[in-house]
Amino acid sequence: MKVGIFFIICFNAIFIGGNSQNSTRSTTQDNSTGGTPAGGAATPAGSGTGTFNVKDFGTKGDGTSDDSKAIQAAWQAACNSTGSPKVVIPTGTYLTGPVQFFGPCKGVTTITVQLEGTLKASTNLEQYENHDWIQFSWVNGLILTGGGTFDGQGAVAWPYNKCPANKKCNVLPTSLKFNAMNGTIVSGITSLNSKFFHYGLIDCQNFNASGLHITAPEDSPNTDGMHIERSSGVTIADSTIGTGDDCISIGHSNSHVTITGINCGPGHGISVGSLGKYQNEGDVNGLIVRNCTMTGTQNGVRIKTWENSPGASAATNMTFEDIVMNNVGNPIIIDQTYCPFASCEGNAPSQVKLQDISFKNIRGTSSTPVAVTLECSQGIPCQNVILEDINLQHSAGATATCQNVQAKYLGTVVPPPCKV
Ligand SMILES: *[C@@H]1O[C@H](CO)[C@@H](O)[C@H](O)[C@H]1NC(C)=O
Ligand SMILES: *[C@@H]1O[C@H](CO)[C@@H](O)[C@H](O)[C@H]1NC(C)=O
Ligand SMILES: *[C@@H]1O[C@H](CO)[C@@H](O)[C@H](O)[C@H]1NC(C)=O
Ligand SMILES: *[C@@H]1O[C@H](CO)[C@@H](O)[C@H](O)[C@H]1NC(C)=O
Ligand SMILES: *[C@@H]1O[C@H](CO)[C@@H](O)[C@H](O)[C@H]1NC(C)=O
Ligand SMILES: *[C@@H]1O[C@H](CO)[C@@H](O)[C@H](O)[C@H]1NC(C)=O
Ligand SMILES: *[C@@H]1O[C@H](CO)[C@@H](O)[C@H](O)[C@H]1NC(C)=O
Description:
- Residues 1-20 form the signal peptide.
- The structure is a single chain.
- The protein is mainly beta.
- It has 2 domains: 32-245, Pectate Lyase C-like (3 Solenoid), CATH 2.160.20.10; 254-420, Pectate Lyase C-like, CATH 2.160.20.10.
- The chain is 6% helix and 45% strand.
- One 2-acetamido-2-deoxy-beta-D-glucopyranose (NAG) binds next to strand 12.
- One 2-acetamido-2-deoxy-beta-D-glucopyranose binds next to strand 20.
């Protein structure tokens, strides 16, 4: 039950500790010409709508030759052009190691990566070192689409993932990492069997994803569907996510995140947190989770903060509404006593302030008797928590448990409110 927590630790270690370059990058690129692919299909200089087919840059597309360099060359040429270029990866299977889709692409207004085929991640872990698999960084106006598949081929790597048991683990590569992007659209893309997370967002603004399919087995370690950190203006809509960990996790320093139309399961549910592990974490503000269905997940909607948090922060203005729970372990859970390690130094209460949180129209079945858990911090009780129109059933009678919170109840609330 607590296993899912460790991945956040590992994740934070790599993102915050290991990634010093983020929102800025110098460039030597010039925006004055279109691409001139090797082997013909040259794009006229300044054409503005250039198509950069990876085949023209030498991909084999046979599933066994390493196509990383050719794909990256197609991107470079497109990024170096003007207008709204498109990198096309046609039907076929392309084996690659890490591929870096880096900007800035100074002359372009939008740049499309149209994946029609399947990209397969190399299973040779030595190729990745500190890299994720597919990395998009410092690009404005990226559109990733095409109906294709990113296959992380994670099964070979999962046995090497020690994060569920060891704080100082080596983190495996995330399949799709978005770093310091602005104005991104991802639609109609499948991600299979990531080695670690499927999608990771950090320092992104204005990011819209829809029509995603994200799949990994229920017992695969740390295969979160999407983790979002230090980002704002993020919408994830109309997607199907089944993994071995959180379907979506919202880390610290996020604002204006909307999650809607998600079918989640198997997995650990949709989670805020874990928050409060580090000093100087930014607040979470303005989260909407709406019109989602959870099936057979370990949790439904969850907010999780650390005990012994080194600094104060807040998570406020969060709404969870119109959610169906089918046989879910902890359909509604706030847990501010989170501490996964046997040896936590002391038991200082969490310093993450939770305020203005509403759970509305949440119905269905719980697979455990305690359908609602509101365990707030002894140091900073939760403020303004509202439960409205809740109907969660369990065969032996559902119950609720609360600490350090005086929730407000509106409409019909089953299980009945906690006695505080
Ligand atoms: C990375 O972002 C942080 C916080 O946004 C900022 O303080 C830091 O200077 C940035 N680092 C680089 C290399 O841009
Ligand atoms: C690149 O783009 C800028 C801004 O759109 C423009 O002023 C400039 O003429 C373009 N070409 C070069 C070579 O910088
Ligand atoms: C980018 O454009 C410049 C100027 O035309 C050219 O010298 C350079 O080779 C191009 N780089 C790539 C990767 O296409
Ligand atoms: C992102 O793009 C928007 C719209 O173009 C712009 O207003 C904003 O300043 C950009 N943010 C960053 C960090 O560049
Ligand atoms: C994302 O969706 C919002 C709301 O529909 C819209 O305002 C915004 O412009 C979209 N962003 C992009 C990059 O398409
Ligand atoms: C709810 O989400 C489903 C996808 O799971 C979508 O088809 C439907 O249109 C959404 N309904 C509303 C009211 O947004
Ligand atoms: C609360 O969050 C919503 C959704 O992101 C946002 O529209 C609204 O402005 C926020 N309200 C406050 C008071 O921050």
